[in-house]
Structures are given as structure tokens and as C-alpha cells.
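About this split. The held-out portion is used to measure sequence recovery: a designer receives only the C-alpha cells and must propose an amino acid at every position. Recovery is the fraction of positions where the proposal matches the reference. Here is one held-out target exactly as it appears in the evaluation file.
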């Protein structure tokens, strides 16, 4: 299911004790999302009770009241529930009812961090895979055994219902929604504006360990930049390690510590992103896109692309092309 609507309305219900970062994330991401001509694509509305809410003291102790009441959830296209500090308590009945009604009419429902507990209380996660902050994943699983809780990922997309892990993973989720709605070029433009990678590889597992990088480890950015510049080459682990002047074993360890994934997996994802960009913004045949993105052949590109993106390259191009197809010139026949 795709949600591509002009000025798509996103409602953010602010519960008492809301985490300020979670609360502001949808506005920061979707509010910065525009077309290439700088036309806004989303209308973000933070909804509060009549008397407003207070955020936790240690997180700023703010008082907040907005022009949008909780009733505004009834007309939203997407609802994103942020985390709040009393997430282990039963959420307000009016919010639960509003979420159930929104789900029934086909609205998209998402959560940031422990906002997943509100979705679970509304029964929207029953029988679904979901995630939340890794420290609270066990509590979510115990309280709601019908939910398939995955604490290792940054976000989970179950179609109409989406959940994300802690704090910054809410940005990953929002960028994913932008990508799903409008394609990777728009998501990349938004990511540049908020100074974020368009898509982070790995999951929460890289944060759960909390291990310091090994002594002597260096930042991966120069290696990643070199990989991006050489995606069309048939690179091997030995090639990458040779460029980084380290052993394959050291290279693999540094990628796992600093990027949460393996070198070849990161390379594969970067090639998919390159293919998406070319499919969206050019009329190059699939054969040339396969070569330019390092997959070599259309068959290999199609297999990797379909597994990663969930659509064939041609279907993706048809859905997300940002430039009209070139029409061959007409020639008169005499």
C-alpha cells in the first residue's frame, strides 16, 4: 500500500510526559520534505489535550499546547505516536479509540521508541512484528505476547503499521516513510537537509553491545567515500582491505563496530541506492544501470533489487520516476 497524497496530513498525538525529541522528529523530517521545486509534501500537526501537556523535567520540562486537539486524529492520513515517560501505564482511552478508528479507516499508524506500547495497547500490533527501544523490548514482549518483538532492528514496516526503535531511529523511520511515499531521491534530499544519512545500515544490535572500537581503529568515512566512487567496479573484500591498508579481518571488525554491518553488505546496499537513483532520475536502460551500479547484469540487478526493495527495477521506475520518459522524435515519411 502506497500513500502518495498532496499535503499528506500527519498527526502526532502528544501525551503527557512526551519525549521532546520524539515529539519533534516528525516535524523536523516531514516538515523539511518537499518536491524538487520546493513544494511542501506534508502537513504535520502536533495534537494536544485542551490543557496541553508537560514534558519530563530531566528532558527539558516544557509546557506545550497546540492549535490542534486530539480530535484532529480523526482526519489524519498518518498518525505517529511518540514515546512518553508513563508508557507502562494504560494510555488515555480517547487516544486508543482514535487509533483503532484510524486504523479501521485505513490510515497509516506509526510509533517512535516506546510509543509502540500505545499501539500495542490499542491491539494494532497483535500478530505483527514490531520493535521499540532495546531496553524496553522485553517489557513489550511480556505485556503483549501476541506481538513479535524484534529488538535488533531500527524500524519495522508492516505496511499500515510501523514501529521504530529508540530516539534517533525515529528519524530513520520517518525517512523510510518519505522514501516509501516519494522515492529515494526525495528521501535523500530531505536527509541532506537534516544532515542525516538517507538510510543507515545495521540495527539496534550495534548499539546494544556498547563496545568501544578497538585501539587504532579509524573512521570509516574515507573508505565509504571510496566505495561510493567505485560502485561500478567488481570489488572484493581483498580490494577494499587493500585500499584501507588493513587486513580483511580488521576491515570486517571495523565495519561491524562502526557501521553495524559487513563491508560487502554495505556495498550491496549502496549499489541498490545507486540503482534507485538512476531508475528515478534517468532513462538509462536497465543494462547500463546494472553496470553503473556494480551488479554487472540485469539478471543480477533484478535479483538483488527485488529482494531488497520489494519490487522489480522496472516496477520501481514506473512508480518513482521523477523525470518524464523521453518521447522519440517524430519523423515525416515522404
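Reference sequence for scoring:
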Amino acid at each position: 500500500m502506497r500513500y502518495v497524497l498532496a499535503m499528506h496530513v500527519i498527526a502526532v498525538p502528544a501525551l503527557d510526559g512526551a519525549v521532546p525529541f520524539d515529539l519533534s522528529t516528525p516535524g523536523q523530517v516531514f516538515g523539511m520534505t518537499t518536491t524538487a521545486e520546493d513544494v511542501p509534501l506534508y502537513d504535520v500537526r502536533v495534537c494536544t489535550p485542551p490543557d496541553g501537556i508537560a514534558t519530563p523535567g530531566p528532558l527539558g520540562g516544557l509546557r506545550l499546547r497546540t492549535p490542534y486537539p486530539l480530535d484532529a486524529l480523526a482526519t489524519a492520513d498518518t498518525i505517529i505516536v511518540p514515546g512518553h515517560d508513563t508508557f507502562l501505564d494504560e494510555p488515555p482511552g480517547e487516544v486508543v479509540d482514535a487509533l483503532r478508528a484510524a486504523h479501521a479507516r485505513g490510515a497509516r499508524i506509526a510509533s517512535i521508541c516506546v510509543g509502540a506500547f500505545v499501539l500495542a495497547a490499542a491491539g494494532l500490533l497483535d500478530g505483527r512484528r514490531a520493535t521499540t527501544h532495546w531496553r524496553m523490548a522485553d517489557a513489550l514482549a511480556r505485556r503483549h505476547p501476541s506481538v513479535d518483538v524484534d529488538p535488533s532492528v531500527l524500524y519495522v514496516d508492516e505496511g499500515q503499521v510501523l514501529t521504530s526503535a529508540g530516539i534517533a531511529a525515529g528519524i530513520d523511520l520517518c525517512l523510510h516513510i518519505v522514501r516509501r511515499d516519494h522515492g529515494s531521491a526525495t528521501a535523500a534530499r530531505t536527509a541532506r537537509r537534516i544532515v542525516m544519512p538517507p538510510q543507515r545500515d545495521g540495527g539496534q544490535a550495534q548499539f546494544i553491545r556498547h563496545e568501544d572500537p578497538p585501539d587504532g581503529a579509524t573512521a570509516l568515512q574515507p573508505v565509504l567515500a571510496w566505495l561510493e566512487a567505485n560502485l561500478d567496479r567488481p570489488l572484493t573484500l581483498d580490494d577494499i582491505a587493500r585500499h584501507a591498508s588493513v587486513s580483511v579481518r580488521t576491515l570486517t571488525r571495523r565495519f561491524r563496530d562502526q557501521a553495524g554491518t559487513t563491508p560487502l553488505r554495505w556495498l550491496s546496499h549502496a549499489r541498490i541506492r545507486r540503482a534507485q537513483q538512476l531508475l528515478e532520475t534517468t532513462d538509462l536502460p536497465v543494462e547500463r544501470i546494472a553496470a553503473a551500479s556494480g551488479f554487472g547484469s540485469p539478471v543480477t540487478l533484478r535479483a538483488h533489487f527485488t529482494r531488497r526493495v520489494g519490487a522489480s527495477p522496472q516496477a520501481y521506475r514506473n512508480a518513482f520516476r521523477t523525470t518524464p520518459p523521453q518521447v522519440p522524435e517524430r519523423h515525416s515519411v515522404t
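Annotator remark: The longest strand covers residues 8-13.
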